[in-house]
Design goal:
By secondary structure, the protein is mainly β. It contains no helices and 11 strands.
Amino acid sequence: VQLVESGGGLVQPGGSLRLSCAASGFTVSNADMKWFRQAPGKEREWVATISSTTGSTNYAASLKGRFTISRDNAKNTVYLQMNSLKPEDTAVYYCRAVIGLFGYWGQGTQVTVSS
């Protein structure tokens, strides 16, 4: 199982980014796929989930409306579209796959929101 995040970078406040999580070794539609983030000096926090069976989505309350999680089964990739970014969204963003009793992390991608 391998998860590779990409799409991070430096963006101005109010801007947008789309993060990608390319999966291998399993099928994303057969896993609960999640995004987490960890800001400097803070604990890692859950951002969003897309469920394996129904494809339903859930978001951290503070982020709902600005962030959207989705998946492309053909590309075996999960995305996180982030809009109206704020400086407090600065963090390393991690992809996580939960398959049965097992969980797997990607290496993370840095997102910096700054003018």
